[in-house]
Design a protein that fits this description.
The chain is an alpha/beta fold. It contains six helices and four strands. The protein is globular. It starts with 11 loop residues before the first strand and ends with a strand. The model has no long low-confidence stretch (mean pLDDT 94).
């Protein structure tokens, strides 16, 4: 879209897998989009590349100021694609960002995510 002259807002991408070496699917494209500025932030979580397992919810928690800004202040969209197991932990990380950075109570943060879902701004494509 950007190449067609359309304005594109800030975009963050979180990608997780076991190993960067063997499972960084579309890694070259992701890196290029980041270098070109299409992706303003990339959070990579490779759970088996170090002693301590790191998942995308950990990266989202590290970036909670940006998450709160993009999702609650700027009205951004959130898409999660992949297996079902991290969906709850990822949502908890986003709720935590709304609480700690946006001053919401837990119930308000969860209600905000429900609102995002209704508006088509919080989409889960999980299997």
């Amino acid at each position: 879209m950007r190449r067609q002259g359309h304005k594109v807002g800030p975009m963050a991408l979180y990608f997780g897998s076991r190993s960067r070496h063997s499972e960084y699917l579309y890694g070259e494209e992701i890196d290029e989009y980041h270098r070109d500025g299409l992706l303003t932030h990339v959070g990579l979580a490779f759970s088996r590349d170090q002693a301590e397992k790191i998942y995308i919810q950990h990266k989202i928690t590290q970036d909670q100021v940006a998450m709160d800004d993009l999702l609650s202040k700027r009205g951004g969209h959130f898409y999660l694609c992949g297996p079902t197991w991290p969906a709850g932990d990822v949502q908890d990380a986003i709720v935590k960002s709304f609480q700690q950075c946006g001053g919401m109570q837990a119930s308000e943060a969860n209600d905000y995510i429900k609102k995002m879902k209704k508006e088509g701004r919080y989409v889960l494509e999980v299997y």
